[in-house]
Fold each of these.
Amino acid sequence: MGSVIKVNEEDFKSKIVQQYTDIIGEKLGGKVLAFSDEWFAAAENLIKPKAPIRDATRFVYSGAWYDGWETRRHNTAECDWVVFKMGVSSAALIGCEIDTAFFNGNHAPEISVEAANLNADAEDFDNVNWTEIIPRVECGPNQKQFFVRDKITDETYTHVKLKMYPDGGIARFRLYGKVKPILPTDLSTILDTASAVQGGVCTSFSDQHFGSADNILLPGRGVDMSDGWETKRSRTPGHVDWVIVKLGHKTNIKKLTVDTAHFRGNFPQAIRIEGIDYKDVASEPTVDDPNWETLVGESKTGPDAEHDYNVSLNKGFTHVKLVVIPDGGVKRLRCWGTVVV
């Protein structure tokens, strides 16, 4: 299994969040399949995209209301547990975030994480051959903790089991990994290689004040502005915002789509898109790398619409950079092309 280390939030964000994908998140299609108990608060809250909240005045039939997963006291079994199905075809796993926000005195004392590669959604999860990914580690009250494996392996999984010992509450659970997409046998097939489902990752950005930059890689067109990328209003002449996306595969790009769905009064006035074939696998391109090439020149956008831009360059790119001028909100970025092998 290798060793697991505890890291701080800053390191986790730079080395894990911006290099890998939260493969069980609800916004990517992850879902809860089974659980041992959810008497006080539902297990599905663990993978909600928004930060947990607290209303100490709110009570429900089972007791005090909590925005997380909380089980009954006095569990006679070793642990309570939840089984998740990933929102991607499969992934290799690197690390997790456990958030016990607002659980203080009723938090989970310890957790562990296991994973399995299943062909279908099993019903008897007790008889699954689970592999330990994160060994039993301590959880503190009302805090985030971050655990990272010393290395990512080639072993991929489809399902995950979160255990908490012996019972209690957890607000949010994030599990990061490298997506292993299913490639078509016909390599002339046009794919959206920026999609998180294909392994696309947002590696850096200028600002994400109102909405997370990695939202632009999600499937579908979302439900409202909260699941897009939106920057704060700029006041400086010449200002632009930007996001860099590492494509799931090196791609001969044929078309790019910028979707401003739900952004009706705060869409960018214009966009520009650049591409790069980045050779250094140990690092990521910076925003001012001199090797960026223009794929789409400065082009006006409009509210609540998909904007398609054809690309005439016949070559492979590993990354794209979306520049919004001067600021604003984008729902999705699609990068349509063929995989370069």
Note: The chain has a mean pLDDT of 96.
Amino acid sequence: MNGFPIETVLAVIGIAVSGAAFVREFVLVGRKKLGYRVQMDVPITEMTSAATAGALENLLANGEGGTWDRTKLSVVLVRIENSGSLAIEADDYTLSDPARPKVGAHLNFEDREVIGCAIAETEGVPLDNFGEDSGMGRRNRVSPNFGIVDLPKIALNRRQHYKVLAVLHRTAGTGEPAEPELVCTLRNGQIEKTTSNDRPSAKLLALTSFLAVVVVAQGVLAINTRTAPPVDCASGSLRVVGSTAIAPAIGKAADLYAATCTEAAFHREFTGTEDGLIAVTRSADPGSILAFGDGLKGESYPELREQPIAVSSFSMITHPGTGVSDLTVAQVRALFRGTVTNWKELGGNDVPVVLVDRVAGSGTRRALESRLLEQNRRIFPYVSCVGMARGGPQCEVKTTEEMVDAVARLAGAVGYAETYAVRPQGGSEVRRLALDGVTPGPEAVRAGRYPFWGVENLYTRGAPPGESLAARFADYVVVGKAKTVLQEFGLVTCQELSDPSSCRPPG
């Protein structure tokens, strides 16, 4: 439409109208509403059966040896409810009655006196709120002529209610009696007479219809002005495989890419860095797969190409029962060389050390060995941690998730994992340790103060075809818009580092 931003105009109108409605309904009018409605107001005129005769005779007795004139008796049922959008608290009632400080509201019956009252039904309101000391009661005034039921300051959540049953005696007037009236003042709220008709009001219907028209108009305009996907989009199917540590970040990046580039499909197989390298090596189509992992690919995969993506912080973690919160790098070396076997030797509790290790080929394990252990550690026979009820001196896991689970489960356990992954989640309780007094995290890595870190890399078999989904997504992750996603998961992108030489796998 000649560049005129009609979509923006419609959006502004919709927001303005809905905002004005919100302010009127929830700010000016008030979100707390105490509603009431009369559900029954019927006269008692005759005994309907012998079965009720005794009860009615007792009702007609006025306590002074006589009886009430049953032609002037009536039974009224009034529903009191929270009809607003916020809970009503006991201190929201501001009715001023010094003689009755516990009373929050009155039910008034003009030209009728109250000869009995009771709570007939409650929804979410305990009956003991209406006990003897609650303030509830009945009384009658001569001038003006009113019967009154005093109601206590009852807290009501949304849609909670209670019902008041009153037996009344007509004291003046003829014909239809005046309807009962609820008298109450509510802080930041109002009293309203409700009905059983649940249909929305005409104003609400009009507002909803208007906003629906705006939304439909915006949708039509969006369809008519839809453009092709961005030029950096590619179509096809891509397998993303490799490290379990970086899996959450790459998975979210893939979701965001696919949301924009709708003809791209991703299949995730994050089972470990080594598995990812093997999958890329064996793939028949190098342009259909990307692997992500920690550290150098090593000499076993000479045909693979690696591109640094980001620097990741790793953490030493322990079972909370070890009694330690900080280790030195020298102590970590002593643990993995087998010279420390009980936590009391490091100032902790008298608990045997259980080393939870990643399997050989893990990128996270390679980062530990190169950054902290100086490639000098004790090699243990393979024992799986999965399913162990009690730890031995050492066991191994395959994934980051299994590492966190094993350390949380096995008394005396110590392990290591990507820092973001070891935040307490899903009920797992592990203790993340400082190293040489430095708390792990991206800021410490960026400042060069934290020793346990590694480089996350992208692996391909040669260069993928330039227009392929593999090439486009690789650019998206390495130098593109996925930067914010990586940062969200605690990674420091290579572009952020002042010293680019730091962004390479540990050697």
Note: Confidence is low (pLDDT under 50) at residues 47-52, 225-229.
Amino acid sequence: MEKLSQENFVTLEFLVSILDTSESTVRRDLDELASEKKLHRVHGGAEKNHPLQEEETILQKSIKNVQAKQAIVQKAAEMISNGDVIFIDAGTTTELLLDLLQQEGLTVVTNSIHHAAKMVEKNINTLVIGGYVKNSTDASIGQFAINQLSQLNFDKAFIGMNGVDLHFLTTPDAEEAAIKKTVIDNAQTTYALVDASKMGQTSFVKVDRLEAVTIITNKSDSRMLKETKKKTKVIEV
């Protein structure tokens, strides 16, 4: 806890070395501290808990858990078929999916101006949702955006999420939560692309119930993931 207070993140390897104990013992202790809400378990270590409404910048998100995110979007791309109409959420994980879109006759709807520009460069049929653009996440939000989304239907949707607990999908911002909820309601299947660090986390605003989506995440031996599988479909990579 002292190390976390200084540096916000501590690795499993570091703890094993300074405590001169086994990796399994350190894992158990970290899991216990996480269950007491004293820290947040992530792949390879632990990080300091974040306030419910705290939201990282695009840059902060883009450099975290990159390998896991790449594996997640590889699996997500396999879910897309020729001729699909899909929604791709604003966000750093969903951005990695754009480079893998090779299906024929695809139509992509997004609430990210950045995502839309990249897809136009790839000659993909693209519809960008308008609205108030939130600088920290590059997402179009607000009632104008919701009105447009409510008129559309999607074969599949791919969304990011800040927190996944045993009951709800959550995010720090109420307006982004409303966008995600509208998308989930209008998609035949929604895939939440969340790396293991988001599992067991809770943010300020509830988006929808856990069972409303299929979760694509990286493999972990966490109790949270095992319990999540009892509630909804989980695809591990």
Note: The mean pLDDT is 89.
Amino acid sequence: MSLAVPAGCAGLAKAQPASVEELLVGWNGTDDLWVFAYGSLIWHPGFAWRERRLATVRGYHRSLCLWSHDHRGSPDNPGLVFGLDRGGCCRGVAFQIAACDVPAVFEALWRREMVTGAYTPRWLACHTEQAPVRGLVFLLNRACQEYAADLSDDRLLASVRNAVGHSGPCLDYVVETEKALRAHGIDDWRLGELVRRLGLQPC
């Protein structure tokens, strides 16, 4: 299997795959593939996986920087969800998908993550204790309308506290992600500080 791994932000300049088939060009159909999770995919992947490893993606960081007008908010009261924004690094979880499950799992991920164009799918190096693996990573698309740039602390906190969408309160989404990270031994101090400022001490 030969999948190019873009360096830094250079991958964002490339044309975004228009379909799962285009994303899987170069896959031989027999290798297992990896998917990197940094938000709700950690605690609610929604797909079968063969192996799970802690992993780090370099050049991007987890950020509560995308408006959600449906799943975690509404058009009148949008919530916020996580994206991988430029700079730093991100500790998360890499899931290994069995080759026989790849078509169905990737199709489901496409429907879940690519509806609004808020994410750009890329194959990146995911660094694990065992060895680096190449994984599918959904990066923030800063050009999308949902990008929540330069929010004030007050507005961010208010949105998380008050927004509710089809999938439940934004507050639950943030808290569950923080809990899942801690359960895996991942220390995200920014997210931990946000939870404390929301008046919810991590437990």
Note: The longest strand covers residues 79-97.
